[in-house]
Design goal:
The chain is mainly alpha-helical. It has one domain. Strands 1-2 form a two-stranded antiparallel sheet. Helix 1 crosses helix 3. The longest helix has 25 residues. The two termini are about 20 Å apart. The model has no long low-confidence stretch (mean pLDDT about 85).
Length: about 180
Amino acid sequence: MTARFPLPLILLVLYLFSQNSFAKSDTETYGDIGAVTLPLFAAGWSYLNNDQQGIEQFSKAALSNLALTQLLKYAVHKKRPQGNSYTSFPSMHSSVAFQSATYLQKRYGWKYGVPAYTLASYVGWSRVKSNQHYSIDVLAGAAIGILSSAYFTERYKDLNIAPYANADGVGVHLAMNF
């Protein structure tokens, strides 16, 4: 079966470019590039590896992330720091970046997760630094992105190790995919 490139990613890229064609600083421009590069890399890596299951997981996470983030933007109706619109909460750039980073980490491991989370953190920082969002907007966007991929994404291959804690104690859950 041939992997298909996810339509939500194409829509996301068009949305981000349409919103930020005229960035005012290098920080904002590089943050915009990171917000587009992360989902392109995440979906592209799955596509190049013919990982149809991964593409489906990425698409579900991306769609739920985009829908919830957009819904909250209009439900909360929070004014941006510059005062130019009422779509500050939560940060779409941050939710997209952290959704992609979490997908990469959870699907392919920390080898991909560390650089992805580093870039996602820069994207979030750039939104505050360029006066597009408040810190709480970025944190909320990051949380939405992380949770959407954490819910839909499964490990690609090999051993999956996850710590857990509950009322009975703490431990490590080990799972092997064959």
